[in-house]
From TrEMBL:
Residues 201-230, 234-263, 313-346, 352-383, 426-457 form the 4Fe-4S ferredoxin-type domain. PROSITE patterns: 4FE4S_FER_1 (PS00198), 4FE4S_FER_2 (PS51379). This is Polyferredoxin. PANTHER family: FERREDOXIN-TYPE PROTEIN NAPH. It comes from the Bacteria. Gene3D superfamilies: 3.30.70.20. GO terms for molecular function: 4 iron, 4 sulfur cluster binding; metal ion binding. The chain crosses the membrane at residues 12-32, 52-79, 123-142, 154-175. Keywords: 4Fe-4S, Electron transport, Iron, Iron-sulfur, Membrane, Metal-binding, Transmembrane, Transmembrane helix, Transport.
């Protein structure tokens, strides 16, 4: 019987996951979004950690949003911490750096002399830190700065300065801090590790076949000590909560002693759960919580500090929008006119959120974007209920007010003769009560510097 190459299977899954989320670039929208939140064949799925951040930042939740996160929780409670080795694009990137270091030996020369070699150490401070910081400042901090989201948004919506964070992760690996991001800074891996002990899928060692060559221990990037303890004791299963089920240990075992197996429920309930969170880790988390408290700023002030931009139709007020937006990009992908853009680092705290520039591409008010937003940052509305802004006419620049003939804004208005009316068959006049702020009038204005512009509502 042919031996399964778990590493090959894993590579196929990793590459497939990346390509699947890039399908919208080819006009295929059966899968949209990123790993923060996605819609796959009509089913909405949300990263549980992203859900918790949005919940704490906005202090609000809907049942549909909760269910989209619970589906993922159920999957990983069964599969364990497989996200890190099978799904995460950062994990795939880091393994690519490892492969390059093996192929190009000169890369190892830039490694720091005192490189970290304690591959078993996992720091837990990032989990409480990001959750508490999101609660305190009212913005999902990790979703804003997450390299996973940045990587996908770079592929889907273009390169920005925030991609420098990806470069920093690569440099961290080259400097000798193996899995430095994963072990020290990433709260997602910690989140899945906490539930991993309940996964029935474990690496099982057949001690009758094991020759204790320790090739598997050398191949393991995360739980080498626990694996070594398993094969040198009477323990049958590797119970480490940090095991990512990557299968590298199984592939390296020439005697066939290791395999994936289902742990009996009785053993699963009676085990102590592998690595425990040390007192030092708890103190680290407490320290980060204290720092979060010191970093406290009212969410209103943070929202005011972010550059003011035009949001998609149905967007809640600025403060609430920054708290609820998942930065998943689904609204941007479904926009038929490619109106919406993803904010880059030059937009400050707006990073990753959707916005548009009326003069570049206006909003056609198709109202498709609120339908794909699971968190409530965009609320479904009728076209006449939309209030993105209000059009204002500069009479000193408008052709019509200079006794010339021009009806560009009037003729293009989706609410013609309502939002914009013609006074005396000559002069366009905006009704601020009806104007939606879609920006079509600004877009079609024949002036190089438009005589009619959308102004944000205060």
């Amino acid at each position: 019987m042919l031996k399964t190459s778990w590493n090959r299977c894993r590579r196929i899954v990793q590459v497939s996951m990346i390509l699947i989320f890039l399908l919208p670039l080819m006009g295929i929208y059966q899968v949209i979004g990123t790993l923060s939140s996605s819609r796959i064949l009509g089913l909405t799925l949300t990263d549980p950690f992203a859900f918790l951040e949005i919940l704490l930042a906005s202090k609000a939740v809907t049942i549909t949003f909760l269910m989209s996160a619970l589906l993922i929780v159920g999957i990983y409670l069964f599969l364990g911490k497989v996200f890190c080795s099978w799904i995460c694009p950062i994990g795939f990137l880091i393994e690519g750096v490892d492969a390059l270091k093996k192929k190009w030996k000169w890369l190892t020369r830039i490694q720091l002399k005192k490189a970290v070699t304690h591959e078993q150490k996992q720091y837990y401070w990032a989990l409480p830190f990001f959750l508490v910081l999101s609660l305190v400042v009212g913005i999902p901090i990790f979703q804003t700065l997450s390299p996973l989201g940045i990587l996908y948004r770079t592929f889907l919506f273009g390169l920005g300065l925030e991609a420098f964070l990806i470069l920093m992760i690569i440099l961290l690996e080259l400097a000798g801090y193996r899995r430095g991001w994963c072990r020290t800074l990433c709260p997602i891996g910690v989140f899945y590790a906490l539930g991993s002990r309940w996964s029935p899928i474990k690496v099982r060692c057949d001690t009758d076949k094991c020759v204790q060559c320790f090739k598997c221990v050398k191949a393991c990037n995360y739980t080498a000590e626990s694996l070594k303890s398993t094969i040198t004791s009477t323990s049958e299963f590797c119970v480490s909560s940090l095991c990512t089920r990557c299968g590298r240990c199984i592939d390296s075992c020439s005697s066939g002693a290791l395999q994936f197996s289902l742990q009996p429920v009785a053993d699963l309930l009676s085990e102590e759960g592998g690595e425990k969170i040390s007192r030092r880790s708890v103190l680290q988390g407490a320290g980060m919580i204290a720092l979060a408290g010191l970093a406290y700023k009212p969410s209103q002030a943070l929202a005011a500090a972010a550059p003011r931009v035009f949001r998609p139709p149905g967007a809640v007020r600025d403060e609430e929008f920054l708290a609820k937006c998942l930065r998943c990009g689904k609204c941007i992908e479904v926009c038929p006119d490619k109106t919406l853009l993803s904010a880059h680092l030059d937009q400050g705290l707006n990073l990753g959120t959707p916005y548009f520039i009326p003069r570049r591409v206006p909003c056609s008010l198709c109202m498709e974007c609120p339908d794909v937003c699971p968190s409530g940052a965009l609320v479904p509305l009728g076209m006449r209920e939309v209030k993105i802004g209000i059009a204002e006419i500069d009479k000193n620049r408008c052709y019509a007010y200079q006794d010339d003939v021009c009806r560009s804004c009037y003729n293009s208005c989706p609410l013609i003769d309502e939002a914009i009316k013609m006074e005396g068959f000559q002069y366009p006049v905006v009704d601020p009560e009806i104007c939606t702020g879609c920006g079509i009038c600004e877009y079609v204005c024949v002036m190089e510097y438009p005589a009619i512009q959308i102004k944000r509502m205060m």
